[in-house]
Amino acid sequence: MLRLRSLASGSAGNATLVEATDGTQRTRVLIDCGLGWRQLAASLAGAGLSVDELDAIFITHEHGDHVGCAPLVAARHGVPLWASAGTRQALRQAGCELPIALTADGETVAIGALQIRPFTVPHDAREPLQLTCTDGDRTLGVLTDLGHVTPHVLGRLAGCHALMLESNHDPDMLARSRYPDFLKRRVGGPHGHLSNAQAARALRALRHDRLGTVVAAHLSERNNLPQLVRDAFADALGCASGDVLVTSRHGLDWLRA
Length: 257
Prior knowledge:
Elements: E1 2-8, E2 15-22, E3 25-31, H1 37-46, E4 56-58, H2 64-67, H3 70-77, E5 81-83, H4 85-93, E6 101-102, E7 109-111, E8 114-120, E9 129-134, E10 139-143, H5 151-157, E11 162-166, H6 171-176, H7 181-188, H8 196-206, E12 213-217, H9 226-237, E13 245-246, E14 255-256
Parallel strand pairs: 3-4, 4-5, 5-6, 10-11, 11-12, 12-13
Antiparallel strand pairs: 1-2, 1-14, 2-3, 7-8, 8-9, 9-10
Helix pairs in contact: 8-9
């Protein structure tokens, strides 16, 4: 069985717990750890878990809202860290000298009952990766922090049974916001974040009969509204807007992939 639990999502911090169960073997991997220590411990406790029950942390890129307390967790509890070579280099330049296992686009990382398959995305980081996770039966795709959706991305996510998909901003709200112009260009640019319309187009391309769970993620609290995201995703999926799942800094409960 494959399931996920969003611990938090958004510019204040991102962390997604993925669990695979195969007979008596249970594997838990945290995708990003952009939370403070106390918040992470409290979020895991809400799931009935402790930090010591994590098998690994996969860091998608070096931005603070995705790294958070990951080095502290690794140092105190011996939880292995995984990332790209570029992300490791960026973290070392920031002072993190802990061992980090390396992976790259096209590789498969086997961690217990879980297989992780990373792929590159266009984002303003050193070597950002997003990924799919599978237990051999079901597949979850995680896609946040990218400025546009490439054919490569769509190919890697084709056939997923569950998706966590960034829907960061509404362009009109971003344009009217108090963000400085350089930040508006960064967020809305080709290496920034997906708009609601971009996310909906990707969802239409990825929709298939066995896609059962879709979660909208990484919403901007200043430049988006959950209802705008629900409407865009509902149109793409052909469902009621009230049926669309949206995660936030408060996270979501366990969901089956």
